[in-house]
Structures are given as structure tokens and as C-alpha cells.
Design brief:
The chain has 173 residues and is of the alpha/beta class. The protein has seven helices and six strands; from the N terminus they run H-E-H-E-H-E-H-E-H-E-E-H-H. The protein has a single domain, classed as MoaB/Mog-like domain (Molybdenum Cofactor Biosythetic Enzyme, Chain A, 3-Layer(aba) Sandwich). Helices cover 47% and strands 19% of the residues. The protein has a six-stranded mixed β-sheet with strand order 2-1-3-6-5-4, sandwiched between helices.
Amino acid sequence: MSMSESSRQHHEIAAKQGPVQVAVVTVSDTRTRENDTGGDLIEQRVTSAGHAVVFRTIVKDEPERIGALLDKIVDETGARLILFTGGTGIAPRDTTYDALARKLEKSMPGFGELFRMLSYSEVGAAAMLSRATAGTYRGRVVMSMPGSPNAVQVAMDKLIMPEIQHLAWEVAR
């Protein structure tokens, strides 16, 4: 069986699993529910594709809070994908990558690599400042992307949504 046949079969099986439950976390010291455009965009993409946002919140950019929140989501929700937005840069207060990297059991370097590649065509060399990352944690897929609406749109439309069911199925099978 060729790789494309296997991948196609996996996509077909995953598609039969039904809607994916997703958690959305905005990491920010300043965003509120009223101006959380990145979180709104993620929720809109997920729900318009027929999936469910089962948890959504905003957390301060503090590693201990981010890590504790990740555990709470895993313990208390059925979310198969946990999507973080914000805190992925290199500024001193950008700690999402650091908090998540300590917890991820398997990393998915391709997500960050592809995200930066796609971002490069839009923002040029500044794309290298992003520490977008992904991996698995306790049977869930965890992905983090920058907080700007444009970055969220790129990550959701080009990377996450085309594979959402496949990602959820792979980590649960």
C-alpha cells in the first residue's frame, strides 16, 4: 500500500468519527472576551466546519497558569484538540511555547515549520520570530499559534482545519 493510499484511508476513517471537540485558549495579558479576535476566529472556523468548541478562555501569559490550564482542560473536557493563540514570540512575556514545550509528550515540529514557511510569504523574515508549536499531551493534540488575526487565519485555514479530524483520530486511536 502506498503512503498516499494509507493517508487517504486514515482520512476516510477519521471523517467517520463525527465532530471534533476543541478547546480554545487565548494567552494574553491584555485581551478580554470582547476584543479576543484571534479566539473568535478560531471558534468561528471550528464551528462553521461542524465541530464543537467545548471550552474557551483567556489566560495571563504566565507559564504556571498556562501549564495548569492545560491539565485542567485535559482533566475536565473531552477536547481532542487544544488550540492556543498568543504568547509565541520572543518577547520576555511570551511564554506559551516554554510552558507547552515542557509538557508535550511527542512534538510535531512540522506544524511550526509549515506555519513559519507560510508566514514567510506574508511577513518575510519576521516569520522566524514565531515559536508556533504542536504536539501531543495525554491523548490530546496541543497546538499554539501567534495571536495576530492574520497568523490565526493562516494556521487555521492552511494547517489545522484541513487535518482536524485526522489529528483527533490519530491521537485517540
